[in-house]
Design goal:
Layout (H helix, E strand, L loop, with lengths): L4 H4 L2 H17 L1 H7 L7 E6 L6 H4 L7 E6 L14 H12 L4 E7 L3 H8 L9 H5 L3 H9 L6 H20 L3 H10 L2 E7 L6 E4 L5 E3 L5
Parallel strand pairs: 1-2, 1-3, 3-4
Antiparallel strand pairs: 4-5, 5-6
Helix pairs in contact: 6-9, 8-9
């Protein structure tokens, strides 16, 4: 049986690749040629896996600028040496090898992972999702304690922000992150993107958030 291109990859992906190869790649050939020799991204972005939230698009970055790791609900796990930890491995590589200048935890509004945690993980009948989201439980308790109205929409909105703040704080528990902060001034940041509005809220040092202006 002879395989055709349509048997190898979905049409939507092959068509997208052809557009990239015929339009963007020729225009940025010199950049890709340079990147083939190595990468020097300035920022690690820990973002949500949500298909609507692409860090490179939001920050209008070219290939090679961002080192990105994505997971459900843009969580930073607790520091726990040993075992298999994808986010921690990416963090270690970005900080110790690539020596990125900053780490940004990028959350977003209408996050499905946050909503699942807000409902209560005892209702999340899943093999992997529930255990992964357990790291957010303390943030959920903090979010509930900080608001009077615990209806779903209000709780989710608050939990999105509290979880981002707690993820940034957990980064400081990684020894190599703490060393990089002292050694070369690594910066830690948190942000939330509004899918419907395009607004980006940036976390202040005290954990509160301020909407960035898109005007110069």
């Amino acid at each position: 049986m002879i395989e055709t291109e349509s048997d190898l990859a979905p049409d939507t992906l092959t068509e997208g690749y052809r557009r990239f190869k015929s339009r963007r790649f020729p225009a940025e050939h010199d950049l890709y040629e340079q990147l083939s020799k190595g990468q020097q991204p300035h920022t690690l972005v820990i973002a949500c896996s949500d298909s609507r939230v692409d860090p490179a698009v939001i920050f209008d970055c070219a290939p090679g600028e961002l080192f990105v790791v994505r997971n459900v609900a843009n969580l930073t796990p607790e520091y726990c040496p040993g075992g298999v930890h994808g986010v921690s491995a990416a963090l270690e590589y970005a900080v110790k090898v690539l020596k990125v200048r900053s780490v940004v935890v990028l959350g977003h509004r209408e996050c499905g992972g946050v909503r699942a945690c807000a409902h209560g993980l005892d209702e999340a009948h899943s093999e992997f999702l529930g255990p992964w989201l357990e790291v957010m439980v303390p943030a959920r308790e903090e979010a509930i304690a900080g608001i009077n109205d615990v209806r779903e929409a209000r709780l989710c909105e608050r939990l999105e922000l509290v979880s981002i703040h707690r993820s940034v704080e957990r980064l400081k528990d990684f020894p190599f992150v703490a060393e990089a902060i002292k050694g070369y001034g690594l910066e830690l940041h948190g942000a939330r993107f509004g899918i419907a509005t395009g607004e980006l809220e940036w976390m202040r040092p005290d954990g509160s958030f301020e909407t960035l202006s898109d005007r110069r």
